[in-house]
């Protein structure tokens, strides 16, 4: 169950971050509301998963996966460039997340 909460925390954070770009500096109402709801929901689910998971591992996975997903989504939604350096860096982030999960030593 804590991994499910972590996944929901990541999803909420990604939605909030993408809406942050769409809010144009909080000048557009609907995306601004989505930012607040997205981040609030994300922190709530992150808090729930921290009841069972190590804070270092959970936070690193939350931040790393969120960063990777937002970076990939931005290429498609906002036409941001994807360079080879960015692509390799995203692979390294993902490998780091996988390594943190394996290094935790707890069963899923």
Characteristics of this structure?
4 helices, about 110 residues, single chain, mainly alpha
Please give the structural blueprint.
Layout: H1 2-22, H2 29-49, H3 55-77, H4 84-103
Question: Roughly what fraction of the amino acids lie in strands?
Answer: under 5%
Number of helices: 4
Task: Classify the secondary structure makeup into a structural class.
Answer: mainly alpha
Number of self-contained structural domains: 1
Order of helices and strands: HHHH
Rg, nearest Å: 15 Å
Strand count: 0
Mean pLDDT: 93
Shape: flat
Q: What level of helicity do the residues show? A: over 70%
The biggest sheet amounts to: none
Unreliable parts: none
Distance between the termini: 9 Å
Structure description:
The structure is a single chain. This protein is an all-alpha fold. The protein has one domain. Helices cover 79% and strands 0% of the residues. The protein contains four helices and no strands. The protein has helices at residues 2-22, 29-49, 55-77, 84-103. Helix 1 packs antiparallel against helix 2 and helix 3 packs antiparallel against helix 4. It is flat, with a radius of gyration of 15 Å. The N and C termini lie close together (9 Å). The mean pLDDT is 93.
């Amino acid at each position: 169950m804590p991994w499910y909460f972590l996944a929901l925390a990541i999803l909420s954070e990604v939605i909030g971050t993408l809406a942050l770009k769409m809010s144009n500096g909080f000048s557009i109402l609907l995306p601004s509301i989505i930012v607040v709801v997205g981040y609030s929901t994300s922190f709530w689910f992150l808090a729930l998963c921290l009841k069972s998971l190590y804070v270092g591992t959970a936070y690193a996975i939350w931040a790393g996966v969120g960063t990777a997903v937002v970076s990939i989504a931005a290429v498609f939604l906002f036409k941001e460039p994807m360079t080879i350096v960015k692509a390799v860096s995203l692979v390294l982030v993902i490998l780091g997340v996988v390594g943190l999960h394996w290094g935790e030593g707890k069963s899923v």
